[in-house]
């Protein structure tokens, strides 16, 4: 019979691409999203969208009691690391507490499998690169801490209640749907690739390069950019691991690119150089973050299909070029200024 999945935060960047992948497998998909950061138009036709907040216990109960669910995927979360350094309790409460309440409700409704969108922000400034699963957890921000709170709740939900879970820790989700249906639209946008694309398209001022005196070959920070479709694939593949145990995996390509290399890639894809200038370091940026994803590969056979940086950037570029206003729904829904 058709598999049924609940995706919280399924109107957001990574969540919406998971929904697309699940629909591709002919699954029955319900999205729970409060649309505070997500977009109605990011939920592809075929999925059912329920607009509600995770803090609405009644709404969560109603949805979960409409089971059985083959799995719950949990993406709904505030995700601005910088904001969390100013408003710690916003993150600890909205992400941490609401996440735990969702887990408790899943246990009550006998959901058997739970997949968490977690983060490499758990690892702070890692001593070893690539980062493996055995590394010490030292959340780098209240945002990372809020994800860790949820991971810990999942640990006890597994130990005591038998809820099997996968915590997927990833850093730089990038790219967009290969078919161009959905993409990345954050407000405010803080991520390197979309900002570089907007700069080359002349939609924003030149890109600020946050520091070039890091201990890396060209002095700019190195990150592991993983295509959002490869991420979605990882979320689906881990389900098979969850019959008898819980797992946690890093998800990354194992290869890093510097800010300069990203800017060059966007320039190649656009066919002209990205206007950019040097700016001071951004607070809290570690020099190098590359995920070791060996266990995920070994256990599930997963491997990234996008291994070429330009191919990743190209999907992002195409969607953004075609959507000057991002998802139009939000813009249209906003009352016009008098
Ligand atoms: N970055 C930059 N200029 C920008 C945005 C980002 O130089 O306008 C750098 C940032 O310092 C980091 C890398 O690009 O080294 C990736 O940043 P992003 O915010 O995309 O992801 P993060 O690694 O912080 O999660």
From TrEMBL:
Pathway as given in its UniProt record: Carbohydrate metabolism; galactose metabolism
Record's catalysed reaction(s): UDP-alpha-D-glucose = UDP-alpha-D-galactose
CC cofactor: NAD(+)
EC number: 5.1.3.2
Transmembrane listed as a keyword: no
MF (Gene Ontology): UDP-glucose 4-epimerase activity
NCBIfam families on file: galE
Complex and partners: Homodimer.
Name by which UniProt lists this protein: UDP-glucose 4-epimerase
Name of the gene encoding the protein in the UniProt record: galE
């Amino acid at each position: 019979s058709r598999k049924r999945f609940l995706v919280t935060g399924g109107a957001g960047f990574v969540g919406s691409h998971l929904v697309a992948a699940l629909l591709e497998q002919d699954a029955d998909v319900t999205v729970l999203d409060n649309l505070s950061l997500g977009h109605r138009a990011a939920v592809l036709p075929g999925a059912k969208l329920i607009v509600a907040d995770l803090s609405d216990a009644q709404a969560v109960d109603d949805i979960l009691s409409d089971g059985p669910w083959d799995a719950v995927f949990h993406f709904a979360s505030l995700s601005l690391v910088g904001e969390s350094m100013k408003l710690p309790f916003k993150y600890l409460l909205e992400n941490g507490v609401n996440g735990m309440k969702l887990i408790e409700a899943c246990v009550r409704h006998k959901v058997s499998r739970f997949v968490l969108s977690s983060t490499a922000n758990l690892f702070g400034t890692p001593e070893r690169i690539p980062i493996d699963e055995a590394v010490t957890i030292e959340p780098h921000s209240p945002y990372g801490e809020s994800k860790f709170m949820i991971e810990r709740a999942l640990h006890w939900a597994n130990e005591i209640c038998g809820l099997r879970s996968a915590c997927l820790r990833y850093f730089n989700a990038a790219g967009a749907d290969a078919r161009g249906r959905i993409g990345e639209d954050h407000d405010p946008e803080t991520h390197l690739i979309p900002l570089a694309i907007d700069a080359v398209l002349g939609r924003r001022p030149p890109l600020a390069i946050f520091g070039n005196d890091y201990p890396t070959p060209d002095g700019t920070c190195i990150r592991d950019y993983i295509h959002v479709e490869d991420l979605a694939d990882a979320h689906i593949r881990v389900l098979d691991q969850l019959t008898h145990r819980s797992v946690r995996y890093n998800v990354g390509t194992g290869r890093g690119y510097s800010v300069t290399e990203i800017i060059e890639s966007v320039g190649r894809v656009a066919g002209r150089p990205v206007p950019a200038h040097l700016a001071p370091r951004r607070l809290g940026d570690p020099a190098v973050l590359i995920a070791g994803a060996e266990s995920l590969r070994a256990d599930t056979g997963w491997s990234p299909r996008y291994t070429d940086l330009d191919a990743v950037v190209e999907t992002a570029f195409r969607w953004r070029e075609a959507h000057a206003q991002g998802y139009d729904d939000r813009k249209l829904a906003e009352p016009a200024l008098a």
